[in-house]
Each structure stands twice: as C-alpha cells, then as structure tokens.
Sequence to fold (419 residues):
Amino acid sequence: MTKINLINLDKGVMLGLIKNKKFKSNLISIYFERNIKKEEATKISLLSNLLSIGSEKYPSMKDISIKLDDLYGMTMNVGVSKHGEKSLMYFKFLSIADKYVDSNVFEDSIDFIYDLIGNPLIVDNGLNPKKLDLEKENLKVEIESLINDKRSYANIQCVNNMCENENYSVNHLGYIEDLEYISSEEMYEFYLEFIKTSKIFIFIEGDFDSNRVEQICKDRFVFQRGNIVEIKREEYKKEIEKIKYIKEDMGNIQGKLVIGYRNNVAYEDYCRYYSLLVANSILGGGPHSKLFNNVREKESMCYYASTSLEKCKGILLINSGIEIDSYDRALELIRKEVDDLKTGNISEIEIDNAKSSIINALKSSYDSVSGESEFVFNQYISGTNLSLDEILGFIESVDKESIVDSVKKLEEDTVYFLK
Fold:
C-alpha cells in the first residue's frame, strides 16, 4: 500500500502526493470544499460548467479540446458533488506519465489546469458572458432530468422530506428558480469569493518524481487567499417523535417505496460504524442480503430492494420497487427484516457473505486508476486517517454482537411512496 505525502501549500491549500507505479498515467484531482448552502448551490454548479468551457488562454471549447489532444489525449472531468453536508467542486485530469514520452507533459498539464481555474475568461467584469445563457439552459435541463429517473427521484424526495430543515436536503446541482437572476458580473464576484475562501485539496497520483512535482505545484498553484470557510461536522443524531408518511402520485405503473432511517452512529466510532456497514450489507447490500432473499425472492414482493448508508449524516435508506397495491405488505416485510437485525436473528453465513462483499468491493475500487486517491480524499475530508488495511481489520472483527449493538439505535424517520 502506498503512503501519501501531504504538503501544506498555502492557507487552506493542501497538496497530497500518492506514488503509485501500477498505472502509466498520472491522475490530477483538485477539490474545492465548502459547507453546502441552498443560496450557493446553483452558482457553484454554474461556475464548474463555466470554468470548464473557456479560460483567458483557451477561450473556447475548441481551444480546450486542441490543448487536451496536445497533452497526449489528457481527459478532463469537471463537476459538483455532495459529501454529507459539504459541497464539492472537482476537477480531475488523467494524463500519461512523463517517463513514457519525450516531453514535460506533467508541467504543461499543470499550466493548463491552473489557467482553467485561475485565469477564467472575464469580459467587462463578467464571467464568460457570451456562454452564460447556454450554460444556464444546460444546467436547467440537467436539474429537470432528475425527475426522469423515478428510482433516484424517489430517493431524493425521501431525503428532502426527512431532512426538510437540514442542509443535507440541499440539491448540490442547484435550483431552476435561482438561474434567472444570476448575471455574469455576479458570477465573477462569486468566483473571486469562492477561490479566496474555499478549502482546496490537490491530489497527484501516479509514477513521478515527488520533489519535482511538489516544486511545480508550489510554483503554479498560487491562489489568492482570504478567510477560509470553517467546515462544520454534520449533525448525525436525531430522535424521532413521529414517523413521516408521504405519498406522491405521478401515475406510475410501478411504485417506489423508500424508507429513511436515522442510525445515530458516528463514523469516527470505528468499531460501531464498520459493524453498521456490515449490518447494512446484510440487510440490503446485494444478492446475499435479507431483503433480496427474503422479500424479493421468497415473497416475490419487490422488483428490487436495496439499502444505502450515508456515512456523514447518519442515514440509512431502503429502496424498493413494488406493485402499487403491495404498499402495506411490502412495508410490513421490510420492517420485519430490520427487526431481525436488531434482535440478532442473523446467521454466520450472512455475516461472512456481507464481510466478503464489502472487502472485495473495497479492494477492487482501491486497485482502479483513481481508487487510491479517492480513498485518501474520502479519509481526509472526513477528518480521519485510516489505511485500507486498518479498515479491512475493523470489518474482519465484526461479529453478531457488534452488529446488534450498531443497529439498536436505528430509528425509522420517513416513509416515502411514489406511485
């Protein structure tokens, strides 16, 4: 396993170097982190789109495309995401390592990347004004398209109702109603504030000369710094006084039933959290799970049934696709499987299968091109510093007693049904 070298480049700017000889490419990832806020979400989404389509030196997509080709077909992935109640804007570039070509691809790549982020296309104090309306329309279509995937939509609606007054319900893509009032001048002002106050993480993963890469990054990644936002830890504990029941009718043939639970477990409590992770897998982590075998297969109740665990916010979601008139029976059967977890009605085979499934998924992900840097970033942004071996050790040590202990505070919060 590779060791990461962390270097503090500036106030709120961290560089992580991950030496990895498994691949012939270098992965350069840059993350901007803030507390997620409804009033900023749309601007951050729009900003990521505008920065990726033009800069001072490369003012058009054609110019950017030509430069990417010059850099031996370097690929670029820019977007926004949500990690708990943190908003992330990310830039990811995959380029060939210098040792396989006769030019300084890495140094040229960093110059290009910094130009995109640090020297955007500004006209009359506005950020790329000629493209603003087009990018607004693209973002509008992207937000509207969320409703087309009914399974994902039901999941989002359950979370929105469950976390109604919590920042976790903020849509990281933004809101259509905010788009109309955003001007290019406002976007430029927001860009300056965003760059100055966001926490910035730069990760380089690949086969490189560490001293040279560190010096290049120190020389190039020079951002204006101000008062860096303090990132808040999510509230993950909540006692439920009354379960919310929400039904939405969109005339669907197949119903989408989503049940949201509060697990009240902190991920920093490693033994309990990784026991909960195994419990989640036993309940709905795949073909080995209770929901799959007992509700879907034996009872033929669901088209699909699975669970997902939100690490930072302390939420467990159960997703299922059912016949419209099977609502009551499906809810009853799903609740029984949750109760079985709480009372320890779990076999050793179920525990072993769940642990194997998680361990295989972790190892497989870690061996992918971006797997190691994403693993390290996930640890870093969570304020933890576990190695893969340490995590595997926690999972291996999970037993029935620790699983029951981890799920005893699981509380049903919201039942959402889309039909």
